[in-house]
Amino acid sequence: MTKHGGQKVLKRLNTPAHLQIKRKHGKFFTNPTPGPHPRRFCLPLLHIVRDLLDIVDNHKEAKKLIGLGYFKVDGKVVSTKSYPVGLMDVLSIEQEKKHYRILPDSHYGLILHEISEEESMFKLCRINNKLTIKGGHIQLNLHDGRNILIRVKDPRSPKEDIYKRMDVLKISIPEQEVQKILKFKENNIAIIMSGKNIGQVGKIINVLKRFGPKASTVSIQHNGDRTETLYDYTFIIGEENSEIALPKIGN
Fold first, then answer.
1. b/e string for 120-131 if b means 16 or more Cβ within 10 A?
2. What is the rounded distance in angstroms from the CA atom of residue 243 to the CA atom of residue 118?
3. Strands (E), the chain
4. What is the H or E stretch that residue 80 is in?
5. What is the distance between the alpha carbons of residues 239 and 233, in angstroms, rounded to a whole number?
6. How far apart, in whole angstroms, are the C-alpha atoms of residue 100 and residue 137?
7. Contact 201, 242 (CB under 8 A)
8. What mean pLDDT is predicted for residues 116-144?
9. Which residues, 6 or more positions from 155, have their beta carbon under 8 angstroms from its beta carbon?
10. Nearest-angstrom CA–CA distance, 80 and 223
11. Which of 66, 69, 76, 170 shows the greatest Cβ crowding within 10 Å of its Cβ?
């Protein structure tokens, strides 16, 4: 990482492989700011605007549009060019009535998949951890950095505690109201979010738990093929059917 023009940037050679950078954009590249997603696995907003959507031709024009508040992430205006947009985030361009969800992909790592306006009103968030806090209430820590508080009436009998790590919440955005819980269990639909099989979708047919997340595995079946992946690489996206639109095979 180096300084260029008063901003922190990356040299092109040091950028993650999933970033689709065109040669004409020169030697340096915007470094994503610290945020809800890992720096090595996110798409800086400027990169999306300039390189992936081709809305503008250069850094200056992309920065101007972003600064004017043309783009929303998860229902909120983002005016920082280096904002990290990551897995399952919803990007909206209201002036063009366009909406996209960030999905894992076997070729590029992360892609923008166009979705309907109706689908842009929610996102899926995986529970990475949960805590019991003061008063016996439950705090759910989600994969995108947000926290959701579940209030418990009686800490001695917490009937509201129906959430487990690896379950996925379907939440409204930007309100963050829980609409549905997708349980991490066999026969539910999952997408692989990391590793050599990233982007594959299928039904969970077996969960083999061993000591430690790196030892536990999940078997996913799709069109007769069976894929084994790490426990922590699995992201539930539906029960009988996927809750989110997915790219067509071959696209």
1. bbbbbbbbeebe
2. 12
3. 2-4, 7-11, 28-30, 43-44, 72-73, 76-77, 84-85, 90-93, 98-105, 109-115, 122-132, 138-142, 147-150, 168-172, 178-182, 189-192, 201-208, 217-222, 225-230, 234-238
4. none
5. 18
6. 34
7. yes
8. 96
9. 135, 136
10. 42
11. 66
Amino acid at 99: H
Instruction: Encode pLDDT of 31-58 as tens digits.
Output: 788 888 888 889 999 999 998 998 998 8
Which pTM was predicted?
Answer: 0.86
Other beta carbons within 10 angstroms of residue 89's beta carbon come to 23
Q: List Cβ neighbours of 213 (8 Å cut-off, separation of 6 or more).
A: 230, 231, 232
Report the Cα 59 to chain-centroid distance in Å: 25
Contact call for residues 115 and 140 (beta carbons, < 8 A)? no
CB 116 within 8 A of CB 97: no
Q: Six-digit token pair at 117?
A: 């306006």
List beta partners, residue 202.
190
- Sequence-distant (6+) residues with CB within 8 A of 128 are 141, 142, 143, 165
C-alpha to C-alpha distance for 56 and 48, rounded to whole angstroms: 10
- pLDDT for 153-211, tens place per residue? 998 888 889 999 999 999 999 999 999 999 999 999 999 999 999 999 999 999 998 87
User: According to the model, what pLDDT value does residue 130 have?
Assistant: 95
HSE-CB at 219 with a 13 A cutoff on CA atoms is: 9
* H-run or E-run covering 61: helix 59-67
Tally: H helices and E strands in the chain? 2, 20
